[in-house]
């Protein structure tokens, strides 16, 4: 299995002038966006730092990045290779912003990469904070979540600073959603300056929440990449094309990790379609959303927030490391809900289970139907051959 770390070894000696920015590059920079650049990359536009220098300082920190279940060793290897790479070492990093707000349930981070030929804006995906995952759920409720507004303002501000450049927007997970949102909601004056948008297993949108005409205008420049067992990237609706990527992970959420995406040359290994598991999960959740109103999903979000408030930890890692205590406090949080909130939680849970069972049943019927037409013919041929 070869991934973006191998890509750095293969193509790291080629500058962007020799080989233009590609999909593998978008994953490298999206992974780098998870690094904690506080105190290393300035918030302003004036004092850019080279990636090779910034990476050396970041590697001195014990807590390197804000990503759940991160492979710390692989991340350090990634940065080490960037330091030595002709392609990445002299990229300029600037305007690093990281914001967390529990009051409005927002987790946002972004930074600018000046690669010489173009300006790349990379939005961080959902990190280890629980509030980040709350905001993800809010995408199915609110017309605009706070991080989307932040991302749009960030793009406009940067575009106004670099008036002669074209832009590449990218991000992994929620960062991919923010990249697409920034593009399709940007002012008309900036639309033509958007060169390409890479959404790496990023969720989509509620169909009623986006400007369809603007979306269509940019469709040829927006691509969503998802692993074959994608979960996150199949959430909500996508109007842009999507490309399925081969992952070395066994399946499910493990394939969300960009370090498992297989690379050949300067691109991912493409597949024809997602697997049955991914399509099952996609249909199950979309069916559940379709039969619940915005009011019901809003009430569910409030109920989940009340349960989360009962927990001591603000990160998923903290919850996982204290599973017995987390379970007890989750139950207490549920017991403290109003009867109305309890009903909506149970309704949504039953809807998910019911839709899942129905989709499994439909899948089994379809498979049985296909088998019915395939196998008897084979048995008859064998039988005829035996009789002769």
Description of the structure:
The protein is α/β, with parallel strands linked by helices. 48% of the residues lie in helices and 14% in strands. It has 14 helices and eleven strands. The strands form two sheets. It has a nine-stranded mixed beta sheet, with helices on both faces. α6 (146-161) packs across α7 (174-184) and α11 crosses α14. The longest helix is centred in the C-terminal third of the chain and has 49 residues, at 339-387. The chain is globular and about 60 Å long. Mean pLDDT is 80; it is low at 367-388.
Largest sheet: 9 strands, mixed
The largest beta-sheet arranges its strands as 1-2-3-4-5-6-7-8-11
Class derived from helix and strand content: alpha/beta
> What percent of residues adopt helix (DSSP H or I)?
40-55%
Can you lay out the helices and strands and say which pair or pack?
Elements: H1 4-11, H2 23-32, E1 49-50, H3 51-58, H4 72-84, E2 92-101, E3 106-114, E4 119-123, H5 130-138, H6 146-161, E5 167-172, H7 174-184, H8 188-191, E6 194-200, H9 212-218, E7 222-227, E8 241-245, E9 263-264, E10 267-268, E11 270-271, H10 276-290, H11 294-309, H12 316-321, H13 323-335, H14 339-387
Parallel strand pairs: 4-5, 5-6, 6-7, 7-8
Antiparallel strand pairs: 1-2, 2-3, 3-4, 8-11, 9-10
Helix pairs in contact: 1-4, 3-4, 5-11, 6-7, 10-14, 11-13, 11-14
């Amino acid at each position: 299995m070869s991934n973006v770390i191998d890509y750095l070894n293969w193509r790291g000696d080629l500058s962007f002038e020799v080989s233009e920015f590609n999909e593998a590059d978008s994953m490298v920079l999206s992974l780098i966006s998870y690094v904690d650049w506080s105190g290393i990359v300035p918030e302003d536009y004036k004092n850019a730092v080279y990636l090779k220098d910034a990476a050396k300082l970041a590697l001195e920190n014990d807590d390197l990045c804000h990503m759940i279940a991160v492979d710390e060793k692989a991340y350090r290897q990634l940065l080490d290779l960037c330091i030595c790479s002709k392609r990445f070492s002299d990229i300029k990093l600037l305007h690093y912003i990281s914001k967390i707000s529990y009051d409005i349930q927002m987790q946002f981070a972004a930074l600018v990469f000046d690669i010489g030929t173009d300006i790349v804006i990379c939005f961080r995906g959902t990190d280890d904070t629980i509030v980040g995952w709350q905001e993800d759920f809010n995408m199915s409720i609110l017309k605009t979540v706070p991080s989307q507004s932040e991302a749009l303002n960030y793009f406009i501000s940067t575009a106004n600073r670099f008036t002669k450049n074209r832009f590449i927007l990218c991000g992994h997970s929620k960062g991919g959603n923010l990249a697409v949102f920034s593009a399709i909601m940007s002012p008309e004056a900036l639309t033509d300056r958007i060169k390409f948008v890479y959404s790496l297993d990023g969720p989509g949108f509620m169909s009623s929440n986006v400007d369809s005409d603007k979306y269509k205008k940019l469709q040829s420049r927006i691509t969503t990449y998802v692993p074959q067992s994608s979960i996150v990237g199949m959430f909500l609706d996508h109007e842009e094309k999507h490309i399925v990527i081969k992952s070395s992970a066994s399946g499910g959420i493990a394939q969300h990790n960009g370090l498992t995406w297989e690379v050949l040359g300067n691109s991912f290994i493409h597949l024809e379609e997602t697997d049955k598991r991914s399509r099952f999960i996609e249909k199950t959740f979309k069916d559940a959303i379709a039969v619940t109103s915005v009011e019901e999903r809003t009430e569910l979000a409030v109920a989940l927030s009340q349960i989360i408030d009962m927990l001591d930890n603000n990160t998923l890692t903290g919850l996982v490391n204290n599973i017995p205590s987390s379970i007890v406090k989750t139950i207490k949080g549920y017991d403290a809900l109003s009867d109305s909130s309890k009903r909506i939680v149970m309704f949504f849970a039953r809807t998910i289970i019911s839709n899942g069972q129905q989709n499994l049943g439909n899948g089994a019927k379809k498979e049985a139907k296909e088998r019915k037409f395939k196998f008897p013919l084979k048995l008859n041929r064998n039988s005829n051959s035996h009789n002769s």
